[in-house]
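Sharing in case it's useful to others searching the archive later.

Someone asked me privately for the predicted structure of Membrane protein, so I'm posting the question and my answer publicly. Question first, with the sequence:
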Amino acid sequence: MKIKNKLAAALLFAGACMAGCSESFLDRPPLSQISADNFYQTTNDLRLATAALYGGKPWAEWNYTCYLPIGEVLSGNMAVNYWGDAVQLHTFSVSGSNEIMIASWKSMYKIIAHCNVTIKAIQEKAPASIPEKDRNAAIAEAKFLRAYAYYKLALQWRDVPIIEDNTKLINSPLVYRNNVEDVYRFAANDLLFAAKHLPAKDAGRVSTWSAQGMLAKVYLTWAGLDAKGNGPRNQALLDSAKLHAGNVCKQSGLSLLPNYADIFKTQFNDNQESLFALQWAAGAGWLEGNMLQIYSPGGAEISAAGQAGWFAISPTYDLYKQYQGGDSLRRKATFMLKGDYYPELNAAGGGYKFNGNTGLKKHIIGTRVDNSAPTMSLTSSTEHNALLRLAEVYLIYAEAVMGNNTSTTNADALLYFNKVRTRAGLAPVTSLDAETLFRERRVELAAEGHFWEDLVRLSYYNEPKAIKKLNEQERILFTYDDKGVVTKGDALAAITPANTTTFKFPIPSPEVTANPKLLEAPVPYPF
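And my answer, the predicted structure tokens:
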């Protein structure tokens, strides 16, 4: 079979896998409905199959609807006006019918289903003529992505169903939730397999360093569960986070890009710092490609195809305050203020000067000419947005080293923490405390969907502090004039004070209707 026909078969197979995903995470096609007999016959077939796991329809709705609203709006970094579901996130009043929350649940289970079917097909269809290392590497890619999805589900809902084989749902469609500890354990097991079987380098795809970096993140988060909201974290899990993050820091040979702003430019897609990035193609349709440029605050002059962004998302005053003290390089690369000039946007026209008040900069990549992408559209950005970066692993390592202590002068922790800090043009520190590290993560990773995860992670072992942080935020927009004068705006809506229930989403109402067992007590997963 020719390569182009193989690719068509892979895409058809992927489409069939996802055909039943529109209503419920339980509605999945059995493998027997999909003709895969002529596929999965060579190593290249496996590469084609796993390539479909990195973008396209399985990821597009989450990337557009959930990535920034949950990671940034819910956390207080940013705000979106005139979108009722986003305002619910902003005000801590998320209902079971919130479409952003529902989209996150559905999207993660779509990705899991896609990975499950791919794993099952490789195990059952791939002949012995394919080298075992190639079969395991392909399965490892799918397991990495499945682990990422379960990590997201655990953070947002805690106890959720673990679905490992979607074909079993045909005969037994109603399932219980599993304990959150088991969800993290399941994700960790997938990542351990991935770390063992993925290569050290594979451009645009995950590697063993990607798996170990993600594994460190899972262990670091999981370590707080035993504390039940107030107490020390599990030292063994912190040690595991330190081990795997340390491996990435010291053994991968990877390094940070010298220029922070370059990370988010398409000419640096899949750079040495990118450990896991979604892969997007130009020309994709609605909810098929990277739609983040819809959030652009600029006009047609920095648009892909002459259509300006229309869903502006803006930094809160609380986020703006974090960049005081000379942190201008990261601020300008993260969000625009009036008067900011960006030579890489509308480069052929002399660059772009922002004349609005405030607006998103990360993920706003400019015109087709700026990106050498003649078919790019407003809904198909060619930015391969990274969901895990080396800089984050450096900060994970520093946090794992500090562990349950309130501060550290450990040389290794300071070395990797200061690599992140000095790249931003800031002076290195000689000691590190929990609050400094928390803030560093916030500004380094702002507009990349991580800050809500940090708040949830904190709530596991110090819930009062996490609640206090949320309730002390100035979750308001602001204006910035030509002279650099900042004026706070009015509240978008009345905010419900954060409390112990704020850190967990309700189970989506449509899922409860389809499966009442989701409301019953969670059960252990049979490992």
